[in-house]
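Supplementary Methods, section 5.1.

A reviewer requested that the exact input to the structure prediction be made available. We therefore reproduce it here, unchanged from the version used in the analyses.
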Amino acid sequence: MAKVLMERIGSPIETFMDPVDFKINLEYMKRLNESYQAKRQEVKAGWGEQYVERAHKKGKMTTWERIEFLKDPGSKVFPIGTFVNYGLEFGEGSNKRKAPGAGVVTAFVKIENRHVIVIANDNTVASGSWWPLTPEKIERAQEIALRLRIPVVYIIDCSGLFLPEQSKTFPGKTGAGYIFKMNALLSAQQVPQIAGVFGDCIAGGGYMPIISDIVYMTEQAYMVIAGAALVKGGKGQQITSLTIGGPDIHVNISNCADYRVPDDKTLLLNIKKEIAKLPSSGIEYYYYGQDPAPPLFDPAEIEGIFPMDYRVTYDIRQVIARIVDNSLFWEIFPDKGKEIVCGVGKINGLYVGIVANNQNLTEHPVHKRSKRPGGILYKDGIAKISTFSRACNCDGIPIIWLHDIAGFDIGPEAEKMGLLGWGSNLIYTNSTNSVPSITVLLRKASGAGYYAMNGRPYEPIVQLSTPLTRLAVMEGRTLAIGAFRTKLDENFNIIFTRQEEYDQVKKGMDELELRISEDMNPILSARQLDTDEIILLSELRSYLETVTEMTYQSIGYRRVKNPRIWSLHDIDALSGDTGN
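The structure derived from this sequence is encoded token-by-token as follows.
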């Protein structure tokens, strides 16, 4: 009978790197972390303390107060989409305003010992209005819920579209209307949806809760197709939004809502009661008799393992050792495609497959005396990923992809080996796998390598970036060389006859390199939803715990084999490694 026998990997910091370098790296990461933590707080503060006070004067809690009240004691909230619209301003002239987090909070929250996805209008930002990318941020959270069959809790306090920017939110395939289609798709797949209406719920905001299974309203909440001001203007009627769409109407007459409650806290307590009625989590069932355990080595040490310079290598196995339970790992094909590390470990008691880029030099498979740089995909590594990920897909094992990749190998040898064909095989695999994938951009995520490692276009459940992430086609200097190639000789030196020619080309190359480097700032990709969240490296284990648990919580909607009948055992046996 096959068993999953894993080996301990990793070692104490002082055994594989200079403690001085480790300390320098930690100090560098500390500075980066402080910058990102300050930005998080800026977003979380919404439009500031005066808008918090305004909510309190209305007898309301703020959005974050509601979320904190909902979550299980001692548990942590894991936001996604924090930096959507970060730094952007909307409107015109003196009316320009920022939209922190696109005016909505989306987060993974544990309620009554079940993971749920909370979608909550930020009532400290323009009364919860929808801004450019607000719909897309909401839809992304709904997509995750749909794919994992995770319950959705809507905390609605929304005054409708931010009308000066309606052209960027109303039309289009993923405009505001697509939110309601996602509501319907969630309902069709029997994913629980619970809505709490805490205040304004106008136009699109009014449609958002209606398809939910259960709708609660507070006494000061209302749901209307059009607000009182619009009705007055269109029909000349002297009314208020509360009189035409409050709980008196929608609970007692229209049946558009189910229950009325006096205030925010009562509504939130009722949401918790509704979640408690749902089927219990399948997570413990999939422990297969083994308890969760922390890594043997502190996950916070990951921050000191990464060098300050993105061109300097490190040992990816030492990173994995600080992610997986008990620092135990079953590596598959360890002697093939050594630029890639593939294997199985546990995260908080649950099996995961891991695909990671090895940064260190590896032996050339043909020219035995030569070495090849890591962080690049060669033929054997590509085939290794395809085979491993297909087996994980067959066995129902979620896959974690740890990116630090410069791309595919290039040149005559790469073309003769048919890397285009091998790469298309991997792309097909990524495109057709149905098992949940979690993508983490540790550092570099360049070119087609980003696609090959299951980047965002290949629909991972969640894609996480770090403060070190560099997401782009190629590095700035390389791109500048390509753009100015006709002005350079074979050694990439500038060709010139006059000093003015040299200065002009150099200036152009330097400016392009700087712009591309600035474009790699992870804030930019997070701002436009090209990545789901920027996390600190010290948070990696905790985020992976949460998302991994979410992939196992609901049962019966995807294949999850018990470990005795995994295809991975067959692959291991045929590869000649009899360790398992």
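The domain at 46-276 is CATH 3.90.226.10 (2-enoyl-CoA Hydratase; Chain A, domain 1). These observations are discussed further in the main text.
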